[in-house]
Amino acid sequence: MSNIDMIRAAQQRLKGRARHTPLLSSPFLDDIAGRRVLLKPECLQHTGSFKFRGAWSALSALPDDVRKHGVIAFSSGNHAQGVAYAAAQHGVASVIVMPNDAPQLKIDNTRALGAEVVLYDRPGGESREALGDKIATERGLTLVRPFDDPQVIAGQGTAGLEIAQDANALGIKDADVLVPCGGGGLTSGIAMALAADAPGLRARPCEPVGFDDVKRSLSCGEIQRNSAQSGSICDAIITPQPGNITFPIMSDLCGPGITVSDDDCQRAMAAAFTRLKVVIEPGGAVALAAALYRPDTISGDTVIAVASGGNVDSKMFQQALEKYA
Amino acid sequence: MSNIDMIRAAQQRLKGRARHTPLLSSPFLDDIAGRRVLLKPECLQHTGSFKFRGAWSALSALPDDVRKHGVIAFSSGNHAQGVAYAAAQHGVASVIVMPNDAPQLKIDNTRALGAEVVLYDRPGGESREALGDKIATERGLTLVRPFDDPQVIAGQGTAGLEIAQDANALGIKDADVLVPCGGGGLTSGIAMALAADAPGLRARPCEPVGFDDVKRSLSCGEIQRNSAQSGSICDAIITPQPGNITFPIMSDLCGPGITVSDDDCQRAMAAAFTRLKVVIEPGGAVALAAALYRPDTISGDTVIAVASGGNVDSKMFQQALEKYA
After folding, report:
1. Taking CB atoms and an 8 Å cutoff, what residues of chain B touch A48?
2. Is residue B265 predicted with pLDDT exceeding 90?
3. Are domains B4-49+149-324 and B52-143 of this chain identical in fold?
4. The complex's ipTM?
5. Rounded to the nearest 10 degrees, how much is the dihedral formed by the CA atoms of B293, B296, B298, B302?
6. Angle between helices A262-275 and B314-324 (to 10 degrees)
7. Which chain B residue has its CA at the smallest distance from A280's CA?
8. Does the pLDDT of residue A24 top 90, yes or no?
9. Given pLDDT bands bounded at 50, 70 and 90, which one contains residue B103?
10. What does the pLDDT average to over A288-309?
11. Helices (H), chain B
């Protein structure tokens, strides 16, 4: 289980390694939302997403004689890049297991960050878990899970400590903190940090319409699954269900979930381009979309939205600009 | 004349008002450049460019009974937005004089930031100076010049104090600091700040090929003019010649100028999108373009590039992505 002491310890280990991302704002966004909007751009984090925090936290928490054998992760996305870069910075090997139909650019980028990429035959039905277990056992690698791991959650929680610190400095005592939510690692970590350091701030998970497993789980008090696993542009945050570790934390500490449409994510991406000059990926834009276009679901005169990542294909980004910039 | 004490005083007045922008980096950019690249993204500054620093510095330095009558500026670009927003934040009126063929979006944005926009008939040959003088005299407004003003230069210099502080924290003792250069307000301000706080760091002006008035002026020791006033996508930094105040400072303190092609600016914009998740306008990208694609003109194992602004039309940005992302 994670707790606030683990988050504070992770912050110490991340010092000088992760970026303390700022809170950005624009009067134009305040006008759209009808309240003050502050954006925490984790797209500016190393490797373009918050995932570097959790990866660094997990790797740096391993005993030396375990870490030195290297780590392994299953991911074709932001978690892959975070783990690859954190491992390279630690000077240890990383193996990233990806489907063989992953975009070549993601494979190339993960390799360029220092990882060995092992492909499995997803269309052919090969089990990535079986393949990963085999490699891990043979080489003594440690698995770094994407969200349901106490040290990963602790690392993501450092973003929450920064929000608490910067909100306190701005005199903000009460606000909803909107967080893009997949498995819940970032949301649960931020929720614990806010509960400790800024108890008037309340974390709220944001998801795409139709993939609201966390919102429904929080609403009924039991873990619910999504019926579909594809069909939204918000690929980075589409997960089957909340984690076994993250869900009880969110259930204790988070406010109700909010859902937004893919179209509103694209509008939010265009607004961030025009008004804040940052690049946000679709899944990373759900919280800003909620802040701007679902004002009725939010209370208070200030809202804080986390932009969880910026690793978006240029074609997808251009499409958002074409439609809404 | 400007000096380091004025820059430090401006920093005090800007405290809590301007953003201390970070130094961003990516191993992918280091690979392109063949050395460590650090980017200072002033596109993340309020109003999307460094101009807010100088505008706030100038306004906050005015005596209360002068400032209360308001300010006036001639600009259709970043200076207009910086002055409008700084005036609004001070609670005083601003008049921005723009040509009547300026893009409607720029007029709308400047108005939305609180300014009164007065249009003059540029195609008809109307003198903006005569119009501006008339309005200023009638209403007791103070003119805020875009670069050749000691308090404006002092404000821009605060970006240099931040670079010195952050480079020192990273242990960087020697490096070229590449600065997009129009009239020289930002370059001369940064040069003075570095000379005081990080004397191993050397400011170097960057300009588009064919609009290298500052490079040629520094090279021959006398102010030179550009023959053309249009024909580059880097509109934000196309000025006829260096300023009478900025040039002697640059002549004293800056290293040789560097020129880059419009194409390389677009490549740099695409690289910043892909690797750093920030939006840079063409003129704001000349320094990053020099860092990435003119490595032969730079010495040392680290280079720092300033991205001076991000106010780019979405069509122009999409074009850069289309070609190079």
Report:
1. 275, 277
2. yes
3. yes
4. 0.96
5. 70
6. 100
7. B277
8. yes
9. confident
10. 97
11. 4-14, 27-33, 51-61, 64-67, 78-90, 104-112, 128-139, 150-169, 185-197, 213-220, 246-253, 262-271, 286-293, 314-324
Is B27's CB within 8 Å of A270's CB? no
Q: How confident is the model at residue A23 (pLDDT cuts 50, 70, 90)?
A: very high
- Asked if residue B1 has pLDDT above 80, the reply is no
One-letter identity of residue B275 = R
Q: Which residue of B has its CA nearest to A275?
A: B48
Q: Does A66 touch chain B (CB under 8 A)?
A: no
Domain layout of chain B by residue ranges: 4-49+149-324, 52-143
pLDDT digits (tens, 9 = 90+) for A264-275: 999 999 999 999
User: Looking at residues A125-145, what average pLDDT do you find?
Assistant: 91
User: Would you say B298 and B255 are in contact if contact means Cβ atoms under 8 Å apart?
Assistant: no
Chain A, nearest residue to B109 by Cα: A28
Mutate to test the interface with B, among A44, A106, A170, A277 (most CBs of B within 10 A): A277
Asked if the B52-143 domain carries CATH number 3.40.50.1100, the reply is yes
Interface check B171 vs A, CB under 8 A = no
Containing A95, the helix (H) or strand (E) segment is: strand A94-99
What's the whole-number mean pLDDT along residues B8-23?
A: 97
Which residue in A31, A277, A322 is closest to B278 by CB distance? Answer: A277
Q: Cα-Cα-Cα-Cα dihedral of A39, A35, A238, A243, to 10°?
A: 90
State the sign of the Cα–Cα–Cα–Cα dihedral A58, A60, A66, A68.
positive
Question: What pLDDT does residue A76 have?
Answer: 80
Q: Which of B31, B112, B279 sits opposite A279 (nearest CB)?
A: B279
Q: Are strands B201-208 and B258-260 parallel, antiparallel or unpaired?
A: parallel
Hey, which residues 251-270 in chain A have their CB within 8 Å of chain B?
270
Query: Hey, is the C-beta of A241 within 8 angstroms of any chain B C-beta?
Result: no
The mean pLDDT of chain B is 96
Contacts of A112 in chain B (CB under 8 A): 27-28, 31
| Answer CATH for A4-50+149-324 from 3.40.50.1100, 3.40.30.10, 3.30.470.30, 3.40.50.2300 | 3.40.50.1100
Angle subtended by helix axes B51-61 and B4-14, to nearest 10: 90
Predicted pLDDT of residue A39: 98
Beta-carbon separation of A44 and B24 below 8 A: yes
Residue A171 has a pLDDT of 96
Contacts of A24 in chain B (CB under 8 A): 19, 44
Question: What does CATH list as the number for B4-49+149-324?
Answer: 3.40.50.1100
What average pLDDT does chain A have? Answer: 96
pLDDT confidence of B101, banded at 50, 70, 90? confident
